[in-house]
Amino acid sequence: MIFVWAFLVGGVICLIGQFLMDVGKLTPAHTMSTLVVVGAVLGGLNLYEPLIQFAGAGATVPITSFGNALVQGAIAEGKLHGVVGVLTGIFEVTSAGISAAIVFGFLASLVFRARG
C-alpha cells in the first residue's frame, strides 16, 4: 500500500505544479521556486515530515522536499551554532545533492552534444 500512497502523493504534488504552469501561467522556474517555498514553509511548520512518513518517496522525490531539507538543515544547525549555523546548515544538508547534480551534469555534457 505504501507504493500506492507514494504514487498518489507524488502525483498530486506534480499535478499542483502542472496546474500552476497551465492555469496560473507561471513559468517552469516560477513553478519550481513556488514548490520549493511551499516545501520550506511546510517543513518549518513541521507538516512535511508527517507527509514523508505517510508517503515515503512520494514526498521525498518531488522538489518540495528540497525546500523541506533546506529548512530542516537550517533549524538543526541553528540550534547548535546560532545564526551562523542557520546559513551553514542549509549548505551542509543540501551540498551532496547539489554537488552530484553538478558533477553528473558536467559528465553528461562531455558525453552528449547539445542541439540548437
Question: Could you characterize the architecture of this molecule?
Answer:
This protein has 116 residues and is mainly alpha-helical. The protein has one domain (2-111). 84% of the residues lie in helices and 0% in strands. The chain contains six helices and no strands. The protein has helices spanning 2-22, 28-44, 48-55, 57-60, 64-81, 83-111. Helix 2 (28-44) crosses helix 5 (64-81). The longest helix has 29 residues, at 83-111. The model has no long low-confidence stretch (mean pLDDT 91).
Outline the fold blueprint:
Elements: H1 2-22, H2 28-44, H3 48-55, H4 57-60, H5 64-81, H6 83-111
In short:
The chain is mainly α. The chain is 84% helix and 0% strand. It comes from Tumebacillus amylolyticus.
What attributes does this structure have?
single chain, mainly alpha, 6 helices, 116 residues
Number of domains as seen in the coordinates: 1
Q: Terminal Cα separation, in Å?
A: 44 Å
Largest sheet: none
Note the overall shape: globular
Helical proportion, percent range? over 70%
Identify low-pLDDT runs: none
Which sequence of SSEs, written as H and E, runs from N to C?
HHHHHH
The computed structural class is mainly alpha
Number of helices: 6
pLDDT averaged residue by residue: 91
The count of DSSP E runs of length 2 or more, i.e. the number of strands, is 0
Query: What share of the residues does DSSP label as strand, in percent?
Result: under 5%
Rg calculated over all Cα atoms: 16 Å
